[in-house]
């Protein structure tokens, strides 16, 4: 008998076809899921400026941390409820969906009110009570890979959510810890096709946390799509040098805009549709 995987429901053996689900018009797992925005929501002007810019570029998913898991307790911890409210207002104004990180079970109701996709950060990938609780939620969960976790541990974390009742899980490769310290993390590009072989769940790439350097975001985004990623989550800021967190890995607005036509071409090669395709095409002829 072939080796049985320790995870069941998330495995390809259990379900051979790709899992797809619709979030506000984007078919996750089929279309290219583009999520962009600041590391953290900082104030109204910042989040509205960024949202307006992103929506002009046909980006439908706004990221932004309101509860930030910072390595130091003295670093900016996020605007909390106020941040979620601001993001919701900006997203509603510009017809976008909100993606934000949840750290605690007792915030689930609040997140369900303001957020469309709940992100589980790398530091909480093995917070099993949180994962089980998110299995009872009727919203998609973006499950980042633990920075020291194997693919098997990551898929077992996804199994916690799915076996608790929520099948809408999006995996996110965000780099792992290695001996290399020129980059913030080491992006495990091969994890993308590996996960595609092992699991039917959609998987996206975070080249921002993955590298820690804005110069590396474009090439790694391209590498992610080439490897079969179902999407990208990218940090973008209107004033990266003033950002309260992760400024050095956040793209300037024009850098982000310039990246889109290339990604669009690449997505097409992989039969992934891109909402901003038309927009960038028009731009190049105007
Ligand atoms: C983030 O997306 O800003 C973040 C903190 O992500 P990660 O959990 O991957 O470090
Ligand atoms: Mn960040």
Structure description:
This protein has 286 residues and is α/β, with parallel strands linked by helices. It has one domain (21-285): Alpha-Beta Barrel (TIM Barrel). Helix content is 35%, strand content 14%. The chain has an eight-stranded parallel sheet with strand order 9-8-7-6-5-4-3-10. It has a two-stranded antiparallel ribbon with strand order 1-2. Helix 1 links the parallel strand 3 and strand 4. Helix 1 (44-56) packs parallel to helix 2, helix 4 crosses helix 5 (151-163) and helix 8 (217-226) packs parallel to helix 9 (253-269). The longest helix has 17 residues, at 253-269. The protein starts with 20 loop residues before the first strand and ends with a helix. Mean pLDDT is 95; it is low at 278-286. Bound molecules: phosphoenolpyruvate (PEP) and manganese (II) ion. Phosphoenolpyruvate binds next to loops.
Write the layout of secondary structure elements.
Layout: E1 21-23, E2 26-28, E3 33-37, H1 44-56, E4 61-63, H2 81-93, E5 97-101, H3 108-114, E6 117-120, H4 128-134, E7 141-144, H5 151-163, E8 169-173, H6 191-198, E9 203-205, H7 207-211, H8 217-226, E10 231-235, H9 253-269, H10 277-284
Parallel strand pairs: 3-4, 3-10, 4-5, 5-6, 6-7, 7-8, 8-9
Antiparallel strand pairs: 1-2
The structure holds phosphoenolpyruvate and manganese (II) ion.
Manganese (II) ion binds next to loops.
Shape: globular
β-strand amount: 5-15%
- Intertermini distance: 61 Å
Give the class from helix and strand content and strand pairing.
alpha/beta
- Provide the number of structural domains: 1
Quickly count the helices: 10
Estimated helix fraction:
25-40%
What small-molecule ligands were found?
Answer: phosphoenolpyruvate, manganese (II) ion
Number of strands: 10
């Amino acid at each position: 008998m072939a080796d049985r995987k320790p995870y069941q429901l998330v495995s390809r053996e259990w379900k051979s076809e790709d899992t797809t689900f619709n979030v506000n018009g984007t078919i996750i797992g089929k279309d290219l899921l583009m999520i962009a925005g600041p590391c953290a929501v900082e104030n109204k002007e910042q989040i509205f400026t960024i949202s307006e810019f992103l929506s002009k570029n046909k980006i439908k998913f706004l990221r932004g941390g309101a509860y930030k898991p910072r390595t130091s307790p003295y670093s900016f911890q996020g605007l909390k409820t106020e941040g979620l409210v601001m993001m919701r207002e900006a997203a509603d104004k510009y017809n976008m969906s909100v993606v934000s990180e949840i750290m605690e079970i007792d915030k689930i109701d609040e997140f369900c009110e303001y957020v469309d996709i709940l992100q589980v950060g790398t530091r909480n990938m093995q917070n099993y009570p949180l994962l089980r609780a998110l299995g009872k939620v009727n919203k998609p969960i973006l499950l980042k890979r633990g920075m020291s976790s194997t693919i098997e541990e990551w898929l077992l974390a996804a199994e916690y959510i799915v076996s608790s009742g929520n099948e809408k899980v999006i995996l996110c490769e965000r780099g792992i810890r290695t001996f290399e310290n020129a980059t913030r993390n080491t992006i495990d590009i091969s994890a993308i096709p590996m996960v595609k072989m092992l699991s039917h769940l959609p998987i996206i790439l975070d080249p921002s946390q993955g590298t820690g350097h804005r110069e590396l975001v474009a090439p790694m985004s391209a590498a992610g799509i080439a490897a079969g990623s179902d999407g990208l989550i990218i940090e973008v800021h209107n004033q990266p040098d003033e950002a309260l967190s992760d400024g050095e890995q956040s793209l300037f607005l024009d850098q982000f805009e310039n990246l889109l036509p290339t990604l669009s071409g690449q997505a097409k090669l992989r039969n992934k549709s891109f909402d901003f395709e038309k927009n960038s095409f028009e731009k190049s002829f105007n």
